[in-house]
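#lab-general

N.A. 3:47 PM
ok so I finally got the sequence cleaned up, no stray characters, all 113 residues accounted for. can someone with queue access submit it? mine expired

B.Y. 3:52 PM
send it over

N.A. 3:53 PM
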Amino acid sequence: MKTDQSKPIMERMDERIIFMKERREVLASHIRCQTVSNSLLEYRKAMEIATQVLKSKGTVATLIKDLARGMCAEQEAKWEQAQIEYKANVVLMDTASKELNALQSMNRVVDSI
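B.Y. 4:20 PM
back already:
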């Protein structure tokens, strides 16, 4: 089995291009679905509802925020997960782009020899 370093530069470039295309599709899906903004909206709605419920029950004001966050932990986790997935895909795209750029530079050097 060949290691990544022993593969021809063009083959490695093709792999990076395919990888970047896949990542672009994932990012486009995130943007179309507005995953981060939708999950933030759900979290904020749940927090507001929980806050109002606690206020109506006469909960001590200093405890309301903490109790509401506890009641909305699932929505908060979904929001954080969506943020992490989006940021990870952006970083993967950037890394693949830089790797492709390096491979193109290597290819130019090899071609000039």
